[in-house]
Design brief:
Chain lengths: 538, 269
Amino acid sequence: MSLRHDLRHGRRIARAEFVRSVRGYVRNKRRLAGLAVALLFFGGNFLFALPTAYVLGLTARSVDAIPYFAPVATAVPVLLVALATLRTLERIGRIDAADLVLTTVHPRAVVVGLVGAEIGRLVLWFGVPVAAFATAFALGLGSPSLLLSAALVALPLVCSVAVWGYALGMATLRLFRRLPSVRRVLKGGGLLAMVAAVVASQFVGQYIVTEGTSVGVFVSALTLAPVVDYVALAFVGTPLARPASISAVVVLAGLLALTPVGLGVATRQASRLWFTDEPTPTRDDARQPKTSSGWLAAPQPFAWRKAGRVAWAFLVRARRHPQELAHLVMVLFFLGPLGTTVAQSSSDALGPLVAAAGAGFGTYLAGATFGLNPLGDDRPQMPVLLLTGTDTRTLVRGRSLAGLAVGVPVAVLVPLASILLGTAPIHAVGFAAVGCLTCLAAALFAVGLGAAYPVYDEREFWGTETVVPSTLVMMGYIVVVGGGTVIGLVVTWYVLAGRLALAPLLLAGLGVYLALTVGVSYGSYRYALRRYRRYTFD
Amino acid sequence: MPSTDLAIEASDLRKTYGSEVALDGVSFSISAGTVYGFLGPNGAGKTTTMRLLTGLSQPTAGTVRVSDTPVDDRRALAAHVGYLPETPPLYDEFSAREQLDYVADLRDVPPDRARERIDDYLDQFGLADDADRRIGSYSKGMRQKTAFVQSVLHDPDVLFLDEPTSGLDPRAARRIREFVTEFADAGTTIFLSTHILPVVEAVADEIGVLFDGQLVAEGTPSEVKARAEMGEHSSLEDAFLAVTSAGTDAVGSESESGEAAEVTAVDDR
């Protein structure tokens, strides 16, 4: 088949995949409502960012060079390749209806289609804000031509990094297939790396300010001058223009030449992945427990009531398939500021801070582990669950109890362990007790919040096909429960430290806080019960 | 053997999704102990009907009673019905033994009795050797058999089966058919939805044919065949094609029916 033929098929596949994605986004009214809320939230912030971009453009008219342009320009292609690789691993490593598509067109067309569709999706999500920001900056700079020159510079770069990122992603998937143990190690390592990156990101700004000179030396060593020269072509015809260099032209030629080569490599990698069998199970796989002898006997205290036994079933399933809990990693993005605070705190405050952090993290787990998509999780089994005669209240309580079984130990044990870091025992017990209460509130609140916005579609997440809660629900949960828990823990700290003067206004405030916590949590729980009781397959 | 007591009463059932009419005034009554074969082409509304009959979906109009219990009273209904949907509702992380133990608990079957029955069923369905394997590693047939056992653990009065033999090998399919007959002989009412017409012909006491949201034929297999004015040696397939041919190309339908009849005649010879 000719290249032109494949490109035409690839364009057709890209369009079909893109349209499928858009229809997937818009077919769910609840999801649309969520998107509207997100748009209102981020759109408002974005509108405020546009004047800033304009002012930046104005300021840039009078500067000789953009600060840190060289390292940023070098980092851009590297980050884009990393992004393309990650998206390949996570989403576009295979195509739906592969049996049909792969017996219909050449794999090269499929690669072009998948990469094209992914670029289309990214443009759909980020195209408008990026273009608006760039336009505001260009207008501030007084050089509207920047938009055209930047697009011309970006096009070969994006094409090249997209195909090479795809090739790298497919090669990684092949490696994972041959060496499953590498995949497991990288998953664990990736998680730790993400924690490290998030925490490190909190220190970078401060470090750059305090250690400016040495950082400058470090980044200059990592700068690739030809790449910087090429990216600088985007500013041709603007006050920030630099003299064009031969190396920039060489890089451009290299990008143009490397794109078809990358496409060829990506196609070869994809073909080998798609048209070869999984290796026979290795001894590593054989070690995986695939059997479980005996009955589903819940230990005490779970065995005491049926809700406890339901909770035990959740815990057993989660232990055997922990990928179902992959959504919990979102909290990592909130650990960064906490890490900074802990690291910068004095030795006196360290213990109480750790105690409070443990109570807060346990609270997060109590609701987020099992509570944020109850209807979505249960949907495949609903024909059984709703026709067993077991009260829906028991099912919902079981789910909340399972969350509490995960969260409460953290909320209790971490504060108690913080005694070793200097927390007074009475303070540790106080934080643990408050943590238990906030865990209960979070577990009840989560099921209602999750039931309000169920997500039924499975998607590839952290290497597994799973139903994960809506991002909007996760954010809402973190904001509401995080905010409420922080207030509760701060008040607890003041009470324990004896620094709280009980003025009428304060008492009224505490009363409102408690009433809101209890009311919202209980109301949310009742709402979840109602959603289960009235659940139908309509 | 069917009795005079009614196991399922559906009255003027109507279900719409926006402007689309999925079911349009469907009524039927099924006596206890009957094996009722529920037939219809793809998209006729069979699964919608089964969800309405099990209370998993709300009718736009009409009423349903199963074992004299209104189906919107789920708690009262649960003890009377077993339901095997087309996609078996199983937890991949459990073994078959754990799955059945869990569902028996949810159904309030006393543990000793439940475990005795589970072992018995696992044995009868040839799952005993694999009972400790995780369901995620099961074949389609094993999943189907596990889900079937799950739906009968509590001895329901009425059993709703949606394509129960789909994807099963001939031996397993025959075992399911035998079970259907055994349960019916013991007084259980079976509501059997399937595309596999020989299965219906072999086990059903009565059949209903749903077409375009309406019940277009009902009765014993012989009555339906007679109503379709098929020949003496015609099959249920011929009758099915005849009563569901409305709205399709008349010439094409006649041709299909004719061809089917010819094949049957050849087979008979």
